[in-house]
Design a protein that fits this description.
This protein folds into 2 domains: 243 residues, Alpha-Beta Complex (Creatine Amidinohydrolase), CATH 3.90.230.10; 139 residues, Creatinase/prolidase N-terminal domain (Creatine Amidinohydrolase, Chain A, domain 1, 3-Layer(aba) Sandwich), CATH 3.40.350.10. It is built from 13 helices and 17 strands. Helices cover 36% and strands 19% of the residues. The longest helix has 24 residues. It is globular, with a radius of gyration of 23 Å.
């Protein structure tokens, strides 16, 4: 049976997923119809000139993780399928009920645990470490992990577990190692992943430039009466022509008051606010850009006032970013602008945190949110995305990806456009 992209997007549910989830669903579906608007047809590959993460870079990341193990009093890190495993080793493995993963102790190369019937495929993925333990269907992978830790003198210490491990894996490891203390490995995984180096920032910068270009083409392709699903198809095709898998959440008119969409999207009408929030991945690194404009008419005074206010909040947050400043202060700076303008109190109209960390995952540690006292460091990357959402009327969000520098912040894409021109770079 052939399932269309449109059907898959409906199954995903606009109200249930964010923009990057749309990307993943849409990229897996069949190609959309070939009748694309001229702005989409004019797009060309933008991925040339950027290189993926190298083997030597993965080795340096493992060394950094081992240093953090020592700093946080951990004897080992266990990571299963997921982004952290790929970040440290380059291995990509789908999550299932069968454990596959890495055991990293304070010294030496990582050891690996794999289902025996998958060993040959696992060895294709494993580029660092020759200690590979295969377990058969009637064996316990957790006993294999325990054996590795006993042999490396770490079976009675503190073991950090990747936060992405399912409970069944965590429970199995804990039972196989009763003398150890199983605890969070986030100080190691996030401790490495939160700080991006120059190569990572270059990959993310290009990914975000690609998404801005895709958004620009989509806005230029809008037509009165266009269905929401067709607009989503345009975002997917735009990213594909630019050389990546990607897509976006697209909302028209009062639907934009739902920050992550509605299950009953409306067709496009003149004078509607149009919100496009999406991204892509380039060599494993994510973009996430939101642009909001008014379609087919000059903005009303109300639309322009809210649009300008959200931009002011975004700029206030950006100006507050400096090394040593607490993450919660960045949220507070943007929220104050919106509340002081009468769109409060607190979360009433600006309904979500200011921003999320971003890197290999679209959302990852750490966050611009009240209560997060984490201090900013150079190399941290975030979305800066304030919004005002007025149910039944409109929603406006501006989102760019920024990173912390030695003395402030830098935006990965430059944007100066008004509501009539939302995607200028």
């Amino acid at each position: 049976m052939t399932i269309s992209r449109r059907h898959l997007l409906k199954l995903g549910g606009a109200g249930a997923v964010g923009s990057l989830a749309f990307s993943r669903v849409a990229a897996a579906a069949e190609a959309a119809p070939a009748e694309w608007p001229k702005p989409i047809l004019e797009l060309a590959d933008m991925t040339k000139g950027v290189e993926p993460i190298s083997l030597d870079e993965h080795k340096a990341r493992l060394a950094r993780a081992q240093a953090l193990l020592a700093r946080h009093g951990l004897d080992a890190l266990v990571a299963g399928p997921g982004t952290s495993l790929t970040y440290f080793t380059g291995a990509r493995w789908g999550l299932s009920e069968r454990f596959f993963g890495m055991v990293l102790t304070a010294k030496g190369e990582p050891a690996w645990v794999t289902p025996a019937f998958e060993q040959l495929r696992a060895e294709e993925q494993i580029r660092i470490g020759k200690d590979v333990r295969a377990w058969h269907e009637d064996d316990s992978p957790y006993q294999a992990i325990a054996a590795i830790l006993r042999e490396r003198g770490a079976a009675s210490g503190r073991i950090g577990l990747d936060e992405a491990l399912p409970f069944a894996f965590v429970d199995g490891i804990a039972k196989a190692l009763p003398a150890t203390t199983a605890t969070s490995g986030t100080p190691v995984t996030a401790g490495c992943r939160m700080i991006k180096d120059a190569h990572e920032i270059a990959l993310m910068r290009r990914a975000n430039e690609i998404t801005v270009r895709a958004h620009r083409a989509v806005f230029a392709s809008l037509a009165e009466g266009m269905a929401h699903d067709r607009a989503v198809d345009l975002t997917v095709e735009a990213h594909r022509r630019l050389g990546v898998d990607g897509g976006a959440l697209v909302l028209f008119g009062p639907d934009a008051a739902f920050p992550h969409g509605t299950t009953k999207p409306k067709a496009l009408a003149r004078g509607d606010v149009v919100l496009v929030d999406g991204g892509c991945k380039l060599h494993g690194y994510a973009s996430d850009i939101t642009r909001t404009a008014v379609f087919g008419a000059s903005p009303t005074d109300r639309q322009r006032r809210v649009w300008d206010l959200v931009r002011q909040a975004q700029e206030a947050a950006f100006r507050t970013v400096k090394p040593g400043v607490e993450c919660q202060a960045i949220d507070a700076a943007a929220r104050k602008v919106i509340v002081d303008a009468g769109f409060g109190p607190d979360y009433k109209f600006f309904t979500h945190r200011l921003g999320h960390g971003i890197g290999m995952d679209g959302h990852e540690h750490t966050y611009f949110v009240r209560g997060n006292a984490t201090k900013l460091e150079p190399g941290m990357c975030f979305s800066d995305e304030p919004g005002v959402y007025i149910p039944g009327e409109l929603g406006i969000r501006h989102e760019d990806i920024i990173f912390v520098t030695a003395d402030g912040a830098e935006n990965m894409t430059r944007w100066t456009g008004p509501p009539e021109d939302p995607a200028v770079v």
